[in-house]
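Task: sequence design from structure.
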């Protein structure tokens, strides 16, 4: 359970309360769409630019003009990428611990692995 808490909260710090974890899960898609739109504004012709003043202005205007659901538009590929990346990292870490603990002469490795688990 602690591993899932650390993965959901970005991996740092200690365990977080459920409400904090849900805020972590909700914030990134909102900020990502706002950041992408702000970055894309620079290449649009001046007549088509949205001219956001900042990320909070962008999120507020997206909700006001397009609805709350548009904050999560296109988030599926990001979520799938994050899930596969986390699964790969966890599997690699487990495999590395297993290999290093069964080393033929790695007394130092065994001690390090035992102390970290």
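Answer:
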């Amino acid at each position: 359970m602690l591993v899932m808490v650390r993965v959901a909260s970005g991996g740092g710090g200690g365990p977080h309360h459920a409400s904090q974890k849900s805020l972590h899960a909700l914030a990134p898609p909102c900020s990502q769409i706002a950041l992408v739109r702000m970055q894309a504004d620079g290449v649009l012709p001046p007549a088509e630019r949205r001219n956001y003043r900042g990320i909070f202005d962008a999120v507020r205007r997206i909700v006001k003009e397009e609805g709350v659901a548009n904050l999560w538009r296109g988030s599926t590929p990001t979520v799938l990428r994050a899930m596969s990346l986390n699964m790969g990292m966890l599997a690699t870490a487990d495999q590395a611990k297993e290999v290093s603990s069964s080393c033929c002469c790695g007394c130092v490795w065994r001690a390090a692995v035992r102390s970290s688990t």
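The chain has five helices and no strands.
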